[in-house]
Design brief:
Chain lengths: 325, 343
Amino acid sequence: MAEAQTNETVPVTVLTGYLGAGKTTLLNRILSENHGRKYAVVINEFGELGVDNDLVVDTDEEVFEMNNGCVCCTVRGDLIRILGGLLRRRGRFDGIIIETTGLANPAPVAQTFFVDEDVKAKTRLDAIVTVVDAKHLPQRLADSHEAADQIAFADVIVLNKTDLVTPDELAAVEARIREINRFATIHRAERGGVPIAELLDRGAFDLDRVLAARPDFLEDDSHEHNEDVSSMSFEVERPLDPEKFNAWISGLLATKGQDLLRTKGILAYANEDRRFAFQAVHMIADGGFIGPWKDGDPRRSRIVFIGRDLNRPQLRRGFESCQAT
Amino acid sequence: MSGATAAPGYALERRGTTRDLGDYVVGAGFAAGTPAFALADGSLHLATGEAWPRVEAHDGGLLAFASAGRFFVTGGEDGRLARVTPEGEATELARLGRGWVEHVATHADDRGRVVVAAGMGKAVHVVDGEGRALKTLEHPSSVGGVCFDARGKRIAVAHYNGASLWFVAAKTDSPRRLEWKGSHIGIALSPDGDCVVTAMQENALHGWRLSEDAHMRMSGYPSKTRSMSFTRNGKWLATSGAESVVLWPFFGGGPTGKAPTELAGGDNVLCTQVAAHTQTDMVAAGFSDGMVVLADIGSSRILPVAPPGRRPVSALAWSADGARLVFGTEDGFAAVVDFGRRD
Ligand SMILES: [Zn+2]
Ligand SMILES: [Zn+2]
């Protein structure tokens, strides 16, 4: 996350989605279309891909718990090894795509990019792209946790097979996605027909999009206990006191981390000309200064939460209390 | 050809032969006295003559390298084990299936009989020097490291939540399981075969003293330990992963409760490779800035071998007689340093 990271690091795109949603079709297009970029691909089902590519690596997802005893603090051991091997010869490709199995929880993949020092030093998580099937998504959401998690984690959502639903059904499914994740970019598609450039090398994870997100000024502060995944953002005008912010966010992640799927923030610290970027997956967090604030841009701090059982008034008060006095 | 830039005082200047091989050096070593460098691009380079011969060992990337005494063994992304002779002849030793061969360990006995252990996924495939399959050892999770004991009788394998110890010649295969929660990414056995040490994802080492069924914990590293090497008498374990060469005492009740000895310390430069000398209590060490030193453990004296100013040292090894040292870097700088040569 340091400034020096930009060009030295290899962008990684994580591709999630249920079996049958169109993930493999999309992957085949990425590998076969002539877009002038070369990708190494880490997949789980070798046979699915019709493309012959010496940069396709087959793996078994191996999730292990970190030694802090927490069930949500998990990383992908296989990825640490495979990325290490691939990155010895980084001149071979422009980027890396990691496909996850249909039922996978995206957290371990994302956390791997925060936890492992070597992966962190040599790669950057460019975006999590989730492919969903417009027709079957409502059913998926009804019968599993993972479908909502995959949407919650997404920076980019490909809403596929739109030709199989009516305009009303499409509007309803899109509204449902927005209830879970208001911040992801949604691309409608029929047969995975999204321009590749809209999916790869987006820098979606670089948090600038957090600034573009509209904060929840107008929404009411009533709190209902809710197991559904939702998303909310907050903004404060006065610069933050880094110590207060650290104390608040560490306490929040330690107590609520299992419910907080993703947290992203762009922060204006008092007496600091650079923007501080913060992000976390569950309780695993990372932060660093990114480029300076642009002249004339308001130096407001924004934070986005995507998770279960989010307590809006409590989060708002907590964030507001981090302002420097 | 490079190396002429070495400042006075570095052994590389007077005793080194160097080349720029142009790709990540995965491993380096000697077979029948011939030095070789294995590159991530799938090739092996024999350091003989003026133009070092290049041998193609793998179609695709090369991931693992070991010397088997009279020849070299490599593992690749193509799922193959290759055998390369010091004369430059490359043959397929074994085709292990689809997947990456990420670890290779070898043992050669006095009569030149060779056993090779190759880690691929959750399995360790054991073959002889002609590639005949001896056995396949299955593990509960992916293999993080493989090594033989000094006599070639046992194979130690690191994986998640511990390590497994197998007898090569056992009729029925059931390993001794050594348990410790977490991801174990490298392994070493003490020369007497009594201590198993693993490197862990969490920047620490874990150890088991087999005769006493006791655990050992060695921590305090700022990064992962990628390289471990016991001194020839087993008194010290040299390790990478800190801003110095960290040496754990395996005598006098250590390492548990003892502070390690640190040699060749500097600021912000990590030790990336270590290789204990084959005859004396000295250890060679490579750093993330390309520097290589030779440290005498008893006197703490440091002999500079190669100056900083390059990419991290990624491979380091001694010849069997301890007269020559080979090292390579992540960007393909390769050197043979001859300490036995008279000036
Ligand atoms: Zn956790
Ligand atoms: Zn509640």
